[in-house]
Amino acid sequence: MKRLATWIGFVVLVALFSSLPVGAQGGGPYVPITSENAALVAEVARLTGHTGNISSLAFSADSTMLAVGEDDGWLHIWDTRTNEVVHAIYACYDTVSTIAFKPNNVIVAAGCQDSNVRLFSLADGMLVARHSMHDANVLSLAFSPDGNTLASSSVFGDILLWEPERGYTPDDFVTWQSSGGYVRTLAFSPNGGVLAAGTQDGLVQMFNSDTGETIHLLQGHSTYVGRVAFSANGWTLISSGRDGIIYWDVASGQMQRGLTSGYGELTGMGWNGGQVLVTTTNSSVLEMWDTGTGSVLNVFSGDALQSFEVALSPDGTMIASDGAADNAVLLLAVGSGSLVAPDGGDTGSSDEDLILDLVYENLYAMEAEDIDRYMATLDPTSPGYESTRQMLAPLFTSYDLAYELLEVEVVEIDGDWATVRVVQTTRKLSGPAFQNNELDILHTAHRYQGEWRLYGSEIEDMRYLD
To answer: Which of 333, 361, 388 marks a domain boundary?
Structure first.
């Protein structure tokens, strides 16, 4: 194997290591999942210790917490930065059917099969409010974007709007009725002006959230509607049922597009209103879709997945789905995360996975302009190690560069050496004269003291852009 040691300043200056934009206030150490990097998404953590089957999942607005509801009434709150349990709450007398975080991340609400809605403090896990105004199983919860209103729905098709800080008497609730049987899912538009409800009869009903007037009654699904979600700009609503996905124009109520899975009936959908949408099927398959083109970006399957529940973090960096064994929740992401086996042991990640993790850890360090973290990804025995350290500070001071990774492939692993080929673009946002470019780079990785480190690189081709 050819061992490249040309770790010189020029290579760094033209972005020897590409970088992906990190999500604002991201929960874990991961980059947003996009159509460009979706093929690199993999399991990065396995959350275990739940006592019941997984019945509901929800991320906090800042993506730093994941709530896991179970069919034995327990609600676990996980810190997605450490993969540790923050609170274990006995939330319901029966199944935790649905979960919602208040946007300011101080309250988590649990909708219960015992007909109650209970609110808990995220500071100490204690109960702060509850109501039992529904007469049956609570199926869905949604906070308004300003956090002042909580909407809940039940199997009787009633939708209650409640301002918890105002009071708990019947006069403090506004009640609407769906036109299509019981309401499985609720979602507020980004500006809070519309509340969408998906029903058992396959209808999507859009309400004016101030008046309760029905704006549109959308018919297109042949089965119940399991999830609804708005695009970030509020112009598009996506609904999912067992029969597939439908895009709706919010203003006109017209159907824009329909998508169906090739792996069976849909059981779940996760969308943060951005480029990537996630669905699960009854054949334990998880698919990632490009919402613009409607194409499938990546497919996961296997014994580890149960795939009845799925959630995509608001910052777009993480996917959570229920696992098939030991009531686990699987976290998927692009990035360096350690897989934890159900017994808490090491899963034994492959060398290829570890090398890809190394490349991305290097990218995160470059994005953070963290010299020590960046140097920790390099092999100290590389001839260019010290010269690289010396030129990083002036590079970070002088330039603000935007990077995009187009391709990454582990070409060969030969004992303690490996080669990785990447294609990336680099564009200047600010700084001195710089020619935007696209690079084909061959990296060399070396196992140093038992850990893979980047040893050197060679630019195989450079194409100027613009």
So the answer is: 333
Do 271 and 194 reside in the same domain of the chain? yes
Same domain, 354 and 318: no
In this prediction, residue 268 carries a pLDDT of 94
Extract the tokens encoding 464.
């100027």
pLDDT score, position 463: 87
Q: What are phi and psi of 107, to 5 degrees?
A: -135, 140
Task: Please give the pLDDT value at position 289.
Answer: 94
Supply the range of the domain harboring residue 392: 9-20+350-464
Residue 274's domain is classified under what CATH number?
2.130.10.10
Distance in Å from the first CA to the final CA of the chain = 36
251-261 burial: b if 16+ Cβ within 10 Å, else e: eeeeeeeebeb
d(CA 430, CA 372): 24
At residue 7, the pLDDT reads 41
Those residues whose C-beta lies under 8 Å from the C-beta of residue 348, and which sit 6 or more positions away, are none
pLDDT of residue 157: 85
Average pLDDT for runs of 10 along the chain of length 466: 41 36 43 85 89 94 95 95 94 95 94 92 92 86 94 88 72 73 92 94 94 94 95 94 95 94 93 94 91 89 75 94 85 59 42 81 73 87 79 79 77 92 82 81 89 86 82
The residue assigned the tokens 């676990």 is: 76
Residue 394, SS3 per DSSP = helix
If one counts the domains in the chain, the total is 2
Q: CA 219, CA 414: separation in Å to the nearest integer?
A: 57
pTM: 0.67
Contact 291, 274 (CB under 8 A): yes
Residues 6+ apart with CB under 8 A from 452: 351, 354, 355, 358, 418, 445, 446
Q: How far apart are CA 203 and CA 99, in angstroms?
A: 22
Helix H, strand E, coil C: the string for 18-65 is: CCCCCCCCCCCCCCCCCCCCHHHCEEEEEECCCCCCEEEEEECCCCCE
Number of Cβ within 10 Å of residue 248's Cβ equals: 24
What Cα–Cα distance (Å) separates residue 135 from each residue in 139, 144, 154, 363?
12, 23, 8, 52
Q: Within a domain: residue 338?
A: no
Residue 198 sits in the same domain as residue 54: yes
- Same domain as 406, residue 301: no
